[in-house]
Design brief:
Blueprint lengths: L4 H6 L27 E2 L6 E2 L2 E6 L3 H15 L4 E8 L8 H12 L6 E5 L9 H13 L15 H11 L4 E4 L4 H5 L7 E5 L23 H5 L1 H10 L3 E5 L1 H4 L6 H9 L4 H10 L5 H5 L6 H10 L4 E10 L9 E3 L4 E9 L1 H12 L4
Parallel strand pairs: 3-4, 3-6, 4-5, 6-7, 7-8, 8-11
Antiparallel strand pairs: 1-2, 9-10, 9-11
Helix pairs in contact: 2-3, 2-11, 2-13
Length: 356
């Protein structure tokens, strides 16, 4: 990520992939201590974990939803809801439209979709929001789309689902505005794509010059929400930061493999997104990464991200607002330090095509 920042500062659209989070806080557990499947109490049978996908609906959020739809179809997760925040890349009304249209295309019948108009103090660059909208509109051909706000807003839906099933997990790939607003109700485990610990941030492309660039986009958009979600969540927290996500670039070789063997709606959807005429040139230039799909995969299949424990806090104001820092006063959580590129690509491609 650090190597592309000069180009991003010159070309606003190149921030595409920069987006990238329940009473007493519990110490985060290692991935190996958190099984993908839980055991049913009555029958002693395994059942998939209930999952809420919290998203701001940018291009790799959509790819993540495609991936999660296949994990849901395979019975490895029980995707209960898609909660959309308007605090990030998605345009008001259009973001929930894209979530609804993608859910329809991906066969996610019965999965609740809700949004919230709440925003943080900082705004995503307007030109980029329009670009995301064009890309996702093209990826959902034939869908008229309903832009009507949900009757149950996203934070309330999160509260209801967590109350009904305390073991629910949240995978969050945008600003943590919805997750923070649902507090004190929180997931058994929160996996958030965001933050940067030992690498630089990725602000660019028209963001105000008074910020020092140490922040990752998601947490900068709503620093107070990021801090609340990370430090006040009752369950364990895993932060898939830029430190790990920088190791999963979107490559032309991967796209060739995807194009040669896309045999499911999920794979078709991702292929259409990454070959969009406004996206493919950025991939060819080596500028875009699979930030959000990596975070989601790490929640379902431990081992694709290397995590380490540390006390993490979020700066909420000043030039470094949104920066994640290691601090004695921070919340003990696990943050990503590395990712297995080849293993991620194999599983991502196979899952999109329903081969696992």
């Amino acid at each position: 990520m650090k190597t592309i920042l000069p180009a991003l500062a010159l070309t606003p659209v190149l921030v595409l992939a920069a987006l990238v989070a329940p009473s007493q806080p519990a110490a985060a557990q290692p991935a190996s201590a958190q099984p993908v499947l839980t055991v049913g109490r009555a029958q002693g049978t395994t059942r998939p974990p209930a999952v809420i996908f919290d998203t701001d609906m940018d291009f790799d959020d959509a790819a993540t939803l495609a991936y999660l739809s296949q994990e849901h179809r395979a019975g490895r997760i029980d995707l209960r809801a898609i909660t959309v925040t308007e605090a990030g890349a998605g345009l008001p009304g259009r973001a929930i439209r894209h979530a609804r249209c993608l859910a329809q295309r991906l066969g996610l019948r019965g999965v609740a979709v809700a949004d919230s108009p709440a925003t943080g103090p900082n705004s995503f660059p307007a030109d980029l929001r329009q670009l995301f909208d064009r890309v996702l509109t093209a990826a959902t051909p034939g869908c008229a789309g309903d832009e009507t706000p949900s009757r149950t807003r996203a934070p309330e839906l999160i509260r209801r689902l967590v109350r009904a099933e305390p073991s629910t997990q949240i995978i969050a790939t945008g600003p943590l505005t919805n997750v923070a607003a649902a507090l004190p109700y929180s997931a058994a485990r929160l996996t958030t794509m965001g933050g940067a610990v030992a690498v630089g941030g990725n602000l660019c492309c028209g963001t105000p010059p008074e910020f020092d660039g140490s922040q990752e986009f998601n947490y900068w958009l709503d620093p107070a929400a990021a801090r609340a979600a990370l430090t006040r969540s009752r369950g364990s927290v895993r932060m898939v930061s830029l430190d790990a996500a920088d190791e999963v670039p979107i490559t032309a070789a991967f796209l060739d493999r995807l194009a040669a063997g896309h045999g499911a709606p999920a794979a078709d959807t991702v292929l259409e997104i990454v070959t969009h005429p406004e996206v493919r040139p950025l991939i060819d230039a080596g500028l875009l990464y699979w930030w959000d799909p990596l975070a989601a995969m790490s929640a379902v299949h431990p081992g694709h991200v290397t995590f380490t424990a540390g006390r993490v806090d979020v700066v909420t104001d000043g030039p470094s607002a949104g920066r994640t820092v290691l601090s004695p006063s921070g919340r003990l959580l696990r943050y990503g330090t590395a990712a297995g590129t080849a293993a991620f690509e194999r599983r991502f491609l196979d899952t999109l095509n329903g081969r696992t």
